[in-house]
Structures are given as C-alpha cells and as structure tokens.
Amino acid sequence: MTLQNIHLIGVPMDSGKARRGCVMGPDAYRTAGLAEALRDLGHEVLDTGNVTPGNFDDVPHPHLHALGETIAWTKALSKTAEAAFAASLPIFMGGDHALALGTVHGAAAHANAEGRPLFVLWLDAHTDYHTPQSTASGNLHGTPMGYLTGRAGFDGFPAVEHPIPHDRIAMIGLRSVDRQERAALQDTDVAYIDMRHIDEHGIAKPLSAFLDRVAAENGLLHVSLDVDFLDPSVAPAVGTTVPGGATMREGHLVMEMICDSGLMTSLDLVELNPFLDERGRTAQAMVDLTASAFGRRIFDRPTRAYS
After folding, report:
1. What CATH number should be reported for the domain holding residue 17?
2. SS3 state at 269
C-alpha cells in the first residue's frame, strides 16, 4: 500500500434532486471519523473544508430542479477538483451525485494536462446517463454520465472539452435503469455490470478486467461511490433506495481490489442523506468502505498455507 496525501473536500450539494438532506453529508462523514480512519492507516489527511457555489440565477425552471444552482456547483467543483490534483488525492464528501458533473469534469481537465487517459468507475444502482431533456423527474443527479460523455443538451453548463470515451467507463451494481437510458447505452462501449451479472459471475472478474485496462493504458482512475450501490438493508440513508444491491462483503472486495491496484486518483462519496440514517449506520459503512480502499485489511495477504 502506498501512503497518500489525501485532501477531504466537503461538498454540501443538495440541488440535484428535490428530496433534501444530502447537504448534511460532509459533516456526517466527519462525525463518523473518516479523517481519523485514514490517518490510522498512515496517510496524511487534510480536511480543506467545504466548497461553495458561486452566485447563480435562482429563477425556477419549468422542468428541471435547481438548474442554476447545479450549474454554479458544477463550475465551482470543476475548478476545485482540477486544482486539488496538484497536491493530493482528493476525496469529495457529498452531497448528491450531481456533484460528479463538476468533480469528473475537473479530473478530465487534469488528466488532459498530464497527457493521460481518465477512466471512471461508477458504483451505483443507476447509470445517471440522462440529459436535461430526457430526465422525466427533472432531477439533475441523474445526468452526470450523460454530461461527462459529451451528450447534447447541457446548455449553460461548462463546455465538456474532454469527454470521457465510453470504453473508459465501467458501471457496476446497476439495477434501476429506465428505458431511455438503456436504449442510449446499449449501443455504446460502456462496461455495464448489473446485479444479475454479479449474481451469476461475481463482482471480481469484471472489476479486475476494467482495472487491468486502466493499468495497461497508464490511466488515472476516478471512482464515484453512491450509497445506493449497497443494498438498503445495510445502507438505508439514501433517497433512491433500490433493493437487491451489493452486500458489504462485495463492497469491501471492490474497495480492496481498487487499493491493490494502486490506480485510484480521486474518489466521490455521494448521496448520503443523514436524515434517513439509523444511528449513523450508513455513514459508518461508507467510512469503512473508504478505509478498505486505502489499505485497511483484516489479514494481510497472502494467507497462511497449510500442508
């Protein structure tokens, strides 16, 4: 395990959907001991405080929820993310998943400046591949992957100068994908791994194949972890609960494999709504998964062999 200089960046963003509560996410991670867990593993950790959006037009949109505010967050987060890479491995403590509109945008700009490809691992029950025109709900937390791959219709958002090629994206844990997203994705090279595939074949093989590609191309890896990647029985504090999600064992395996690869260069922790939690249970689960991504183990490998 390589020790890291980690910057924790709070993103109290709650504009991506109508249901409120993710604004409390960053402080829930702080209260659950995220910084302490990472320091215990030997990493240098600096909490840089919370990002704030710039001024924005608060005029309601006839269909989209908090459009002006979400654009302002995207601009602020893109600049923050791009700057953070110069000194650290940033962890963005959200906040709803619309924050990835900005964090991955900034990561892509950094990757381009480095002359390296950016890969995105999307751990989520949803693909979030909508555009502002295709989303039925009007909730922009369902659009980051559409935006970041360069789909049209994101008027007012920062231009996507470095769209993520579809074959550099893996979506793992899918189990709630609507018809429009499914149709749009099926003709792309995105590696989408739903829960049936995981049930039949396991989670390690598709993740390993994706990580091997990142390594082969000397890529940067942005990981975006949504609370609803996990089954709501173990992580209830999310407004988009979908039964049948990943177990904690599967979650830890994913994070340990990411750690073993040494490839992750940035991390989103999103959609934690403490208002829906049970005695901090979900916040603690997310902290534990993050610790696994940075080296926490029960036993060091290889395990003892007996003859």
Report:
1. 3.40.800.10
2. strand
